[in-house]
Amino acid sequence: MFLRRKLTVMATVALLSTSLLAGCSSSGENSNGGSNGGGTATAAEVLANKNARAAISMIIDKQAYCDVILNNGSIPTSTFTPKGLAFDNGKDYTDLTEGMGYEYNEEQAKELWEKAKEEVGFDTVEMELLTFDHDTGKRTGEYIQSELSDLEGLTVKVSNLPFKQKLERETNGEFDLAFSGWGADYPDPLTYLSTMQTGNQFSNQVGYNSEEYNKLIEEAMKLPITEGYAKYAEAEKLMLEDGYLAPIYQKASAYLEKDYVSGIVNNSWGADYTYTYADVDKDDKVLNLATSSDIPTLDLSKATDQQSFQTANTTMEGLTRVDAEGKVQPGVAESWETSEDGLTWTFKLRKNSTWSNGTPVTAHDFEYSWKRTLTPETASEYSYIMADIVGSSTKEIEANGVDGVGVKALDDYTLEVKLNRPVAYFAELVSFQVFFPQNQAFVESCGDAYGSAADKQLYNGPFTLTSWKMEDQFTMEKNPNYWDAANVKLNKINTKVVKDTGAEVSLYEAGQIDRAGLSSDYVDKYKDSKEFHTRDVASVFMLQVNGGNNK
Q1: Quick one: 279 exposed, middle or buried, by C-beta within 10 A (0-12, 13-18, 19+)?
Q2: pLDDT digits over 487-516, tens only?
Q3: What backbone torsions phi and psi does residue 459 show, to the nearest 5 degrees?
Q4: How far apart are CA 217 and CA 384, in angstroms?
Q5: Phi/psi at 103 (5° precision)
Q6: Cβ contact 303:434 at 8 Å
Q7: For the whole model, what pTM was predicted?
Q8: Model pLDDT for residues 128-139, shown as the tens digit of each residue
Q9: How many CA atoms within 13 Å lie on the side-chain side of 11?
Q10: What's phi and psi for 463, nearest 5 deg?
Q11: Which of 328, 296, 292, 319 is nearest to 309 (CA)?
């Protein structure tokens, strides 16, 4: 039975792909005819209806998607927070969310869709689905389009966009449906659930505004871990039932890696990889990589995506860093201490951390960076990640400005941070890229161009970005001024932007790159190779369902 389903899905995607390549797009007309006599509705009118959102969530066969489109170990999910991220005395937080959300149920989805038609009063509606412009993104768009076509009267136009353009449209609310992903920034459910609090990233994009959800999250943050996790689960259940996010799968990845490569750390949260102590058994000590998307920005206050964070993680460094075992290690801060009540953290910075222009990295660079992110004029989508810092709320900043924020350079090499509540994972949290330092004089000298080119950023990490050709390639070279440069083995990392898996695999087989990601077509071919690897990731991919912010 599984084989029959797999073949059916593959045939459907193949037929649909042919029509899309021929330039066809849906017209918005329902060839089957409607039964409600409501005519055509706008996507915004339909997506404002809870039953319509639920139907969209339930009509997608997630298991078939994982089996056919991905085939890399990814697993279907109906919940937002992934497995293997947050634990309470060894118990996975997701034990509390099991059975939540909308699972695949075609019959029930169609019933809810008919209810939505009656409630909104329509027969037909056309929606646009945003997805990525690499080959897996295109196949994903075709698959979801095919699944949604089972809802009578719904036609879907797929727009495959470059990563940066897609992010811009999502940020501006210029979409109906968007295939998106979210990776953990720190090991706690809040790294997912906070994105749907009013005013934060996904909440803004889909127009979600639930006072009850906000209240549950705020209450959970003040509780001990066991009680807090139970409250988080209650909030997640509510949010999933509202249907503004439709989780599809938890990511795993399959890849090829040359046997002469070693020391790359596969992170479970934050940036995907750490290359600080990577090595290649080659005389030139050059690691060659490929990526499916360009770097949207190097501005740490404005970055929101994995590629920007990955580049920052390789070329810059925060107060702390995390090793291959997920344990916190000193970064720019050589030591730190916490007050007895857990509300004040004091970081002592090393004096041999310097910027790539030769100036020292100081506590003032961290104070400026964090306050710049929190400044409303910066319009940072990630400012909410600093919500635990005293004085960082929107209301407090409107009243007191960023001067009231609880981060202060006591001297050049001492940074004090005051929190609203004890945060056990704060040392892990500040290893995340949004908490990295920024040099005020340099930022202001660049103006609006800051972070837009290799020479429009300063670097204090193991590598510096020396070349960046948009939508083509970028190069990072060993930073001789990095405080731990003696232990950095690579001389250079070359990364080429390659949006087709076949092309990436060809480069790998030709020896031009040392690591290649695999899509479903290539997993079976290479799964018995000694160079084949898989990894689990604390990332969830889903549909954003724009139920209240469609522009």
Answers
A1: middle
A2: 999 999 999 999 999 999 999 999 999 999
A3: -125, 140
A4: 13
A5: -85, 165
A6: yes
A7: 0.86
A8: 999 999 999 999
A9: 6
A10: -135, 160
A11: 296
